[in-house]
Write a structure and sequence with these properties.
This protein is 6% helix and 15% strand. The protein is mainly β. The termini are far apart.
């Protein structure tokens, strides 16, 4: 699979570009009809979850995010 890119949009959705699949928790795959760009809801108000429908504008969702380094993962218990 080719590289994918996820962009956290300020005050908006997660935009995914490239080759990817979206699955539910049971492993079912959403049919994306050949799309190579989609947006996933972050505000929780979309009527088309997990996909964005622009509801973040209506509800005034605010979340600005800057890229940063995450700390190393905690060691797993032996």
């Amino acid at each position: 699979m080719a590289e994918s890119k996820v962009t956290v949009r300020n005050n908006g959705p997660l935009r995914i570009e490239g080759e990817f699949s979206i699955c539910d928790q049971d492993g079912g795959t959403f049919g994306l009809a050949g799309r190579t760009v989609i947006s996933l809801c972050r505000c929780g108000n979309s009527e088309n979850k997990p996909f964005c429908d622009g509801s973040h504008n209506r509800v005034g969702f605010k979340s600005e995010t800057k890229a940063r380094e995450l700390p190393p993962p905690a060691p797993k218990p032996a």
